[in-house]
Write a sequence for this structure.
């Protein structure tokens, strides 16, 4: 069985996001980036299957600038066998990403296409479902557990009402949620070896995908600043203040 | 864990600990001298540059040699030095003093050292240097003959009690015929090795300062790119060494910071608060008003100079840069000497194939010469600000030709006991003002350091005997750790039974090392946390 995993280069979750002064986006220059944490969970899951003998090849794919190669190196250090870098300097909208992933999936013919349920930069949560739709494959999103069989998978999804269990025929697109697993610590020798593994390079042109312009970003603004509070001297004063603001 | 852990072993020709100015310069020079040498650089920060913090105005000599065409593609923060100003601050006024000649910055550039390192790292990698951020050196390793044979990286995935969690990953050993320790000020392995080999047997104790820094974005017209301002005086008293800096960058950014010599005597002093007060001085505050903080942090720096420089070589290893103590205090610069020390080590290894003889080479170099020349200036301030300034004038005029060398003493020994103090508190004596510029307090400041530690890991600030904190320190020194720490790591709290207890908020730590240095009983031992933990400084 072959598993394809997508990874996205995103601003690290520890970074305090700064908005560009002209409101055209967020500051990315010199800012720490890492693999989207949900994608890390997807990579971890694929490697666990490989270690358990459930699949024999794991291929990682990313779309992004040259620097996104770092995230592919991380995926290789987890234990992915190969990596494909679809290079573009432009921002990638979900529909473009889905088009690229469709083309890659058609070339690679995986039984499972694993993705993070969303990327922590745009929080769109669209690429997985769109990819499944373009491929005409079944999809199971927000997976908190996956049991693989030869030609199907039983996926437990975290939904508002509790847990929902689906059986999907393979090939399928499955997107991973937080509780699926806890990614491992990368070992230094594996990171060293990953530096020497080859990365295949491709482009939107080569894959015949036209960049979508389905979305237009109008403005990026920080959330409104919280006004500073007042310190009250007594309970009576607190009650009076709350009444004044019609909160009591 | 009763059974010994099986550890992977990797071998390199040269191992470098620390991807700062000294480490990267050494690694690059080694590759330039002999491209086939396999060089591994470990860096404890999650990314190269994320733990580096400095002013910083830089002399470009070593960089010109290492990357001759660097000006064609300069780092993102790189502003030519324009005017130098030197100010004496009083509580409600200021007076401009002549700029000391060492602080004439004509021809230098203002950079962010973190940004400089993240810019330099790909150039090192292009030469074939392997850099591994997120991996620190927990301890140095020795071979049968007692020589340094490399380092061990920390174990990942231990819980707070030190027991393996799911996903426990043992650290590995990295071996090399020569290891270069370029960990920066008070490096944990360097500290271990200086003790182990008694490298400081013939030198004075190292002395330190704590530097606090913030990067601000300010309204247009409040920033004059290239302007370099240094201050002494308020809010420190005449007996405390230290001062402020304001470096005007481009794009309406200002780097502002404050340094306090850690030989300060009054344990009630709060360096973080002194920095915040400095920002509110009438000469400083108008530059910041209406602006916002982009990032903030703190780091100890070495001040001991020539007489405190330990022996920098030992069998199988050398110590470089601030880990040894190559900062030039009167110049307020250490990046060029750190880089130079790395390049000297690389050239020495290339010529001789061994660490033996490096110490003599370093002392005979321009680094040794400039440290020796200014050796008496910093200790002159041990007699207070005015004697210090007069002595600095004398040493400058005579170019360090005085036949004497003033000695240094350990910073923690300079701390006076509370019952030995009859002066008012620093805030009363100096007339601290009410503050309104951010950050409100140390926790608000740590937010801008973006520091991150997994809470469920062994505490990396080891207090060897916490009973001393309660039984002695509280009444002898008033628990100064709760005040000198810039990140509010140490707190004295009451436990359920109403007893006083030391609480260590290790996750706040910004890896400045001040506690390891200034603790009056020398019972705090700073060890490395899991790799990749710590601050994520942005352009500091």
């Amino acid at each position: 069985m072959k598993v394809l995993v997508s990874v996205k280069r995103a601003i690290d979750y520890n970074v305090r996001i700064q908005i560009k002064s002209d409101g055209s986006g967020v500051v990315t220059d010199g800012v720490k980036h890492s693999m989207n944490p949900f994608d890390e969970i997807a990579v971890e899951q694929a490697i666990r299957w490989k270690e358990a003998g459930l699949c024999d090849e794991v291929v990682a794919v990313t779309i992004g600038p040259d620097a996104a190669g770092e995230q592919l190196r991380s995926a290789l250090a987890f234990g992915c066998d190969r990596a494909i870098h679809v290079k573009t300097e432009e921002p990638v909208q979900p529909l473009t990403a889905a088009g690229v992933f469709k083309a890659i999936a058609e070339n690679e013919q995986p039984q499972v296409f694993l993705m993070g349920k969303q990327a922590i930069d745009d929080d769109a949560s669209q690429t997985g479902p769109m990819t499944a739709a373009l491929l005409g494959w079944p999809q199971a999103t927000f997976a908190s557990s996956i049991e693989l069989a030869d030609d199907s998978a039983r996926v437990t999804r975290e939904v508002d009402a509790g847990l929902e269990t689906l059986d999907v025929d393979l090939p399928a697109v499955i997107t991973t949620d937080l509780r699926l697993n806890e990614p491992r610590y990368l070992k230094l020798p594996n990171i060293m070896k990953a530096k020497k593994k080859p990365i295949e390079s491709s482009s939107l042109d080569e894959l015949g995908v036209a960049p979508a312009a389905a979305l237009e970003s109008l403005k990026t603004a920080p959330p409104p600043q919280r006004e500073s509070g007042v310190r009250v001297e007594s309970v009576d004063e607190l009650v009076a203040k709350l009444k004044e603001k019609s909160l009591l | 864990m009763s059974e010994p852990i099986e550890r992977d072993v990797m071998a390199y020709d040269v191992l470098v600990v620390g991807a700062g100015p000294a480490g990267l310069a050494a690694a690059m020079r080694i590759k330039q001298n002999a491209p086939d040498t396999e060089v591994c650089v470990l860096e404890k920060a999650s990314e190269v540059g994320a733990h580096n913090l400095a002013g910083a105005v830089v002399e470009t000599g070593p960089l010109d040699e290492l990357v001759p065409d660097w000006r064609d593609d300069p780092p993102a923060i790189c502003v030519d030095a324009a005017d130098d100003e030197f100010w004496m601050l009083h509580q409600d006024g200021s007076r401009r003093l002549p700029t000391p000649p060492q602080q004439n910055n004509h021809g230098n550039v203002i950079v962010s050292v973190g940004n400089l390192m993240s810019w330099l790292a790909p150039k090192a990698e292009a030469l074939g240097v392997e850099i591994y951020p997120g991996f620190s050196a927990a301890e140095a390793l020795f071979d049968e003959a007692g020589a340094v044979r490399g380092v061990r990286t920390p174990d990942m995935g231990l819980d707070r009690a030190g027991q393996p969690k799911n996903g426990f990953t043992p650290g590995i050993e990295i071996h090399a015929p020569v290891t270069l320790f370029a960990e920066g000020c008070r490096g944990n392995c360097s500290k271990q090795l200086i003790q182990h080999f008694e490298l400081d047997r013939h030198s004075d104790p190292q002395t330190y300062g704590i530097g606090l820094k913030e990067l601000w974005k300010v309204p247009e017209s409040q920033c004059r790119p290239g302007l370099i301002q240094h201050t002494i005086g308020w809010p420190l008293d005449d007996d405390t060494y230290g001062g402020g800096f304001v470096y005007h960058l481009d794009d309406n950014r200002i780097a502002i910071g404050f340094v306090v010599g850690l030989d300060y005597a009054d344990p009630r002093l709060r360096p973080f608060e002194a920095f915040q007060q400095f920002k509110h001085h009438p000469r400083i505050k108008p530059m910041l008003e209406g602006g916002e903080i982009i990032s903030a942090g703190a780091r100890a720096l070495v001040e001991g100079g020539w007489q405190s420089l330990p022996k920098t070589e030992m069998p199988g290893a050398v110590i470089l840069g601030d880990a040894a103590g190559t900062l030039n205090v009167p110049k307020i610069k250490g990046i060029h000497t750190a880089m130079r020390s790395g390049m000297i080590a690389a050239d020495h290894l290339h010529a001789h194939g061994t660490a033996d003889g490096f110490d003599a080479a370093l002392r005979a170099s321009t680094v040794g010469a400039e440290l020796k020349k200014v050796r008496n200036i910093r200790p002159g301030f041990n007699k207070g600000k005015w004697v210090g300034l007069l002595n600095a004038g004398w040493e400058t005029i005579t170019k360090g030709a005085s036949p004497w060398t003033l000695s240094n003493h350990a910073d923690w020994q300079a701390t006076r006991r509370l019952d030995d103090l009859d002066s008012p508190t620093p805030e009363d004596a100096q007339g601290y003002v009410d503050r309104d510029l951010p950050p409100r307090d140390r926790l608000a400041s740590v937010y801008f350091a973006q520091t991150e530690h997994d809470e469920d890991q062994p505490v990396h600030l080891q207090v060897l005997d916490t009973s001393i904190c309660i039984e002695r320190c509280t009444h002898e020194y008033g628990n100064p750790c709760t005040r000198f720490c810039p990140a509010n790591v140490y707190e004295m709290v009451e436990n359920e039974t109403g007893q006083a207890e030391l609480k260590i908020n290790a996750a706040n730590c910004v890896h400045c090392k001040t506690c390891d240095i200034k603790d009056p009983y020398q019972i705090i031992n700073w060890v490395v946390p899991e790799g990749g933990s710590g601050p994520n400084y942005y352009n500091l």
Remarks:
- The CA atoms of residues 248 and 254 of chain B lie 5 Å apart.
- The radius of gyration of chain B is 22 Å.
- Chain B touches chain A at residues 8, 10, 46-47, 50, 76, 115, 118, 130, 132, 134-135, 153, 156-157, 166-167, 169, 172, 174, 294-295, 447-448, 450, 452, 536, 538-539 (CB under 8 Å).
- Chain B has a mean pLDDT of 95.
